[in-house]
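## retry 2 of 3
previous attempt timed out at serialization; input unchanged, resubmitting
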Amino acid sequence: MTIALFLQYLTNALSLGSLYALIAIGYTMVYGILRLINFAHGDIFMLGGYIAFYCMTLLIMPWWAAFIVSLGLTGLFGVCLERVAYQPLRHSPKISIMISAIGASFLMENLATVIFGGRPKGFIVPEIFNQIVHIGSISFVNISLYIPVITAVLLVVLLAIVQKTKTGMAMRAVSTDLAAARLMGIDVNRVVSFTFGIGSVLAAIGGIMWSLKYPQLNPTMGMIPGLKCFIAAVIGGIGNIAGAVLGGLLLGFIEIMLIAFLPTLTGYRDAFAFILLIIVLLVKPSGLLGKHQIEKV
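## retry succeeded, writing output
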């Protein structure tokens, strides 16, 4: 393999890993607050892409307006989903809320099939995201450059919110001890809703960027990326934002390099993600950057 070809694969790995990282952050934020795996997160990712698509096609919005509307509506949907499917079960056994999350995921996929149709739709890629960039002997579509930059900016903004604002302080308090945070006067419901809203907006951004990079929409498009981003969050240390980013980048790098060096195993790239998950759980169950925690009963 030549250096130019390796750099080409490295660019693709950075782009894919950044997408995984962005979506994995949503998983890890919700888990950090409620110790809940939001299995519907991948379907919220799908919803963001569809809303942007229909805003551009049916409502004839410019792409930037369509993207903004998609982020707002998807964030609002995430808040409503938490209020309807998760909040009533907050004091129930963990298995109950997990079953509710799985049910919400299947419900969203089937509703999307009924409302949007099961036939794949081609996502409209604006010209600004579809230009070929040449750097030496490396060529790539400029969306592959935008994705890691946008992910890095969003990560900095999110860390600033969590570390520097009162809402972020409340989020950290709730993640440490929900009952004690409530006794200290923190509005737990508001903090949880804010967390779901932010996580859903990040999923929508991921869905839009995924659709720009792989311009095809279908109702189950969030299933495999959602599972992979959950794997990325677990690998990095679920509940740890930096860990989610590390896990996403690592998973994207391994997938692309698997295709580069072992092209005959390309069809098994999804299986290798789960193999990596098993290895990490056996060697370091808390993840690469996670801390060992005792589960409260």
